[in-house]
Each structure stands twice: as structure tokens, then as C-alpha cells.
Amino acid sequence: MGKTTSHRITVCTSCKHKGTSCKPGFDLIKKLRSAIEMAGDAIPEDFEISGVACMAGCDRPCTVAYYGSQKATYLFGDIDPDTDIQDLVEFAQQYAYLHDGWCSSVDRPGKLRKSTLARVPSSMIALEPTEEFAH
Questions:
Q1: How far apart are alpha carbons 108 and 121 in whole angstroms?
Q2: How do residues 79-122 score in pLDDT, each as one tens digit?
Q3: Domains of the chain as residue ranges with CATH
């Protein structure tokens, strides 16, 4: 029986570098899959890596999202398949251990400290009603 995957990395495949027809998403997926596989047991969870036609980060190609069950989701932009693979792998290692997926920008590796486009809380997070919010 195969492992189930609770973590996913999605790469935009339609992002283009400004002024060119170059779409780096497919190259990034290939390089990221290889690097995650080479990391082996250094990443304690399986990550499904796939592409999607658009994540609306067109001004910041290439965009990459990290998702996990009951975890915050991250969207990163300005990712270069030639220079940023190690940062993406290190974040996968870190993200796998984060119970709720939440981390500060200073805790993210390398370029990912400054290239975060969004951090979306888990949809499982709910506020308990209190008197303050009841009115």
C-alpha cells in the first residue's frame, strides 16, 4: 500500500518572465521533484509536487504554493528554477515539522524570507464565540 500525502507543492506553469515567452514552471517542477527525492529522509513527509495553469502571481513569476492538511498555506513569488531550489527544499523540511504551518518570515530559508506573496491560515482555524464578539 502506498503512502498518503498530506503535503503539496504547486507550481504555476503559465508564469512568464517579463518580455519573454519563457515559462519556467515546468523546469522548476522537474528540478524540485528531483531535489526533494534526493533529500530522502531529511524530509519526513511526502510532498506531492504538481503544476497548475495560474495562481494569479503573474507580476512575480514563478509562483509556488505550499499546502498541508490543517496548516497555513504559503504562496511565494519570484522563484527561479536555477537558483532557488535549495531554499524550496529547506522550506519543505521546515514546513513538514510545523504543526499548524505558521512561521515568521525570518524563520524561512534564504530568498523565501522576502518573496512571500501570501500566508493563508488553515480553514480549520475557528474562533470560539466570546462576549466581545457576540454583540
A1: 17
A2: 999 999 999 999 999 999 999 999 999 999 999 999 999 999 98
A3: 7-134 (3.40.30.10)
